[in-house]
Every structure is written in C-alpha cells, then in structure tokens.
Amino acid sequence: MAIKPIDFKSFPTTRYQGSKRKILPWIYDSLKEIRFRTALDACGGSGSVSYLLKKMGKSVTYNDKLHFNYLIGKAIIENQTYKLTDEDIADLNGINPEFTYKNIIDSTFKDVYYLPRENRWLDKVTNNIINMNHYQQNVLQYKKALAYYALFQSSLVKRPFNLFHRKNLEIRTNDVERNFGNKTTWEKSFDHFFKKFTAEANSLVFDSGTYCRATNESIFNIDPYYFDLVYIDIPYIRKDGSNESSNYLKCYHFLEGLSRYNDWESIIDYESINLRLKNIEQQNDFSEEMIYESIEEILLKFRHNKIVFSYKAGGVPSIEFIEKIMKKLGKRVHRNSMHYKYALNHQNGDAKNNREVLIIGT
Ligand SMILES: C[S@@+](CC[C@H](N)C(=O)[O-])C[C@H]1O[C@@H](n2cnc3c(N)ncnc32)[C@H](O)[C@@H]1O
Question: Whole-model pTM above 0.85?
C-alpha cells in the first residue's frame, strides 16, 4: 500500500526548548525505515514527535514528567475526537456569575511575567477551564486539555524568549532599542492569542484509527513492555557552559503552576525572585553529575525495545558512550546526522549551527 505523504505544515507550532518541530521531516526519514507498531515518546515535550508518530498511524504513548506537557499530550495525541465549540470558547473567555473566581496570578505574580490586566485574564480563563462543566467527564477531560493547550501557547508567545526562567517583565515594558525578541507579538492581547490557539488546537485533533494515549510519568518509572519502539529525547546537557536551560521545570514552572492552579499557592517557592516552584533542583532527573548513570539506566530499561535516541552534538555524554552501551546490550547500532541551523540562538542572538543526531539501536 502506498504511504500517504505527511503534511508537516499542519503540525503544532509550539515554541518549546529543544522541540524537534523543525526537523520532523528528517526524523520521519529515519522512523519510516524501522518496523514497529507501538511507540513510546518517553520525554514528549511539545508533542511534535508523538504527533508525527500518530500521523504515521502508530499506536503512540506520549509521556512527559511535567503535568502541563501531559495535558498537551492529552489534547492532541490521546484525544481523537473532541474539539472546542464556538460556545465553549466564548464561555472560556467570559465571566460566569455562578463561578467563584480565585485570583492567584493577579495577587502573587505582580510585575513578574505579565501586565496586571494580563494576570487577571490568566486567572479568569484558568478558573473557567477548571469549572467547565457542560459535558460528561470522558468528553470534558479533552475539552479542558484543548483549552489548556491554548492557554499555555498563549502564555508562551507573550514571554520574552518564551521562557519563565527570569523575572523580566521589564524587557517588555522598557522603552529601549532591542535586537532580539518580538515586541509586536508580546503586545498582542491574550484574547487574540487564545482565539488563535484554540483554533490551532482544534485543527490538530484527528482520529488516527489507532489507540493513542498520554501519560505523566518519569521515564525511569515507565513499564517498557508495551512498546516496540521508544523514542528518547532527554534534556540536553552541554559539555561546556551553563546548563540552566536543561532544567525544564525551571524554564516552565509558570505553566506547571497554571496546570495545577488550585495547589499552586502551596508549591510556590516564595523565597525565589521569580516565584518558581519549590525544590526545583531536587525534581530534576537529568543533572550534569548523574547524566552517565541516568543514560545507562534508561538504555538498560529499554534494552528489549527498538531505540531511537535523539542527540545534539556538543552534549554530554558523547555519542560513542551511548553507542557503546547500546552495543553492549546486544543492539545493532547506526547513526543518522544532519546539520541544523537555528534561526536565533537565545544566548547571543546569532544564527548558529548544530548537528542533530539520531542514534538508532534495533
Ligand atoms: C528535549 S525535551 C523534548 C522535546 C520534544 N521531543 C519535542 O519535540 O518537543 C525534554 C523533555 O523531557 C521532559 N523530562 C524531563 N525529565 C523527565 C523525566 N524524568 N521523565 C520524562 N520526561 C522528562 C521535559 O519536561 C521535556 O519536556
């Protein structure tokens, strides 16, 4: 049977650190050469690779340790049917006199990430998502997940660098010349983006005809037996320089808080300048110190699965280290690599070359 070409233009547009969105066609070229039916995207992030696997007709399990990412997986991978109606979207943006509204963001995050009116908008819409109640639970879970998808994407595009690692609202508000970022985008309203991203979320829903699901586990706790193939894209640890951005909870704690809104106040680290979550370092499973042991543990766990391991040159450990372990575990190993030019490097504002590698063990 002829394979239908994949239209990569209709994929999620998420701006997410380490997202493979732009190199999906190249990943697809490798995946389509491997025989498998069930797949685990163990560190799913924006869901772009899971979405590719779903488009390929695979039975895919999207997984990520962060809860907000898991909701994205529910919305666009597990969900095969439900969309937000115009009425749902209007309700999400309105005020319902029957609801009691909490104002956690407005009262806690003043001058941290958004303007006061934007904080109030975020409180309003988050309360509306939590209180959505027109549907049965089996439908509601996906409607809410789609609404969260739009809420998270709207929150990301309005942030300098699309991150929450610094309290830096002044980058938006200072009247200075800048050679980075996108002031026009930041200044568009949340209403504008929510409309755009609810439409995007809806457009991403399709029925692949094959069972797909989303889970919210640490990769170290996943049962490997259900999958023919596992795609592994762990946080990138640089050989040199700062590894601040490899801690995803540090970069995206605000979205994690939004996804756990009713508990948020009890898990904020009020001592931190940017009001991140408590114990952010302890929750990080991929520290520089432990990365060799962590990778060995992961490869051992998935030794009976076909493995596709994403790697970026300049990282720790070396490609050779990963290949050596795979071979020791009895795998046939080969690698595919490509040069990839990032449009903008956040650290220095320059275009930069990187080498993306897939280490494939079958
Ligand atoms: C490099 S990103 C994945 C990017 C993804 N492939 C994409 O295209 O968007 C790494 C992901 O690993 C997740 N992560 C970190 N520690 C994890 C763990 N112990 N188990 C599962 N996921 C984890 C992070 O939340 C992050 O989303």
Answer: yes
